[in-house]
Amino acid sequence: MIDKTAIPTKLLWVDLEMTGLNPKKDLVVEIAAEVTDFNFKILDSYEARIKHDKNKLHELFKANPWYQNEFPKNQQTFLNNLDKATMSTIVEKQLIEFVKHNFGSEPAILAGNSIQTDRSFIKQYWPTLDSKLHYRMLDVSSWKLVMNSKFNFEFEKDSNHRAFDDIHASIAELQSYLNWFEKMKTDKAKK
């Protein structure tokens, strides 16, 4: 049983690539997960592409204007490598084992950018996995909002919409915000 009152020592960084943003009709096509400590040292990783009917994927990609403009190369690469993909039910089992192995009875806190969107897809497609996760999440996009609006601090990041790359960019972004606060604290102490 997960002790939801325990203080976490690790984070479960997750990024999903989907055919769109509606979990009721869109599909997860790729997932990456990394476990880090709170110094952002990577402790373990998981990655999978999700197998779907090629025609259904093509229709979903085609229906999403963002993908038409931003994602044509990655979409075609994904469709061409579909034979390397894993069934969604198998991915859920692997992810549950990944969480059990890395967190045991410690709460698995999801972390990432706009992680609520990823969580809504996890709830829709992998409800057993969702039940193993803590209700709290660490959303880097909330930090972005505060840093941009209150402190006029902007983090520039590239996004090529590959799951592992997006996780690493989210970690780097949060680290830059924490570094900014550390610098402010140091500067204030010098005065």
Write up this protein.
51% of the residues lie in helices and 20% in strands. The chain has 191 residues and is of the alpha/beta class. The protein has a single domain (10-190), classed as Nucleotidyltransferase, domain 5 (2-Layer Sandwich). It has a five-stranded mixed sheet, sandwiched between helices. Helix 7 (140-151) crosses helix 8. It starts with 9 loop residues before the first strand and ends with a helix.
Distance between the termini: 49 Å
Please name the CATH topology.
Answer: Nucleotidyltransferase, domain 5
Order of neighbouring strands in the sheet with most strands: 3-2-1-4-5
Helical fraction equals: 40-55%
Question: How does the helix and strand content classify structurally?
Answer: alpha/beta
CATH class: Alpha Beta
Please, what is the oligomeric state?
single chain
Q: Please mark out the parts with pLDDT under 50 across 5 or more consecutive residues, or reply none.
A: none
Largest sheet: 5 strands, mixed
N-to-C SSE series?
EEEHHHHEHHEHH
Radius of gyration: 18 Å
Query: What coarse outline follows from CA principal-axis ratios?
Result: globular
Q: Hey, roughly how much beta strand do the residues contain?
A: 15-25%
**CATH architecture field:** 2-Layer Sandwich
Task: Identify the notable features of this structure and list them briefly.
five-stranded mixed beta sheet; alpha/beta; 8 helices; 20% strand; 51% helix; 191 residues; single chain; Nucleotidyltransferase, domain 5
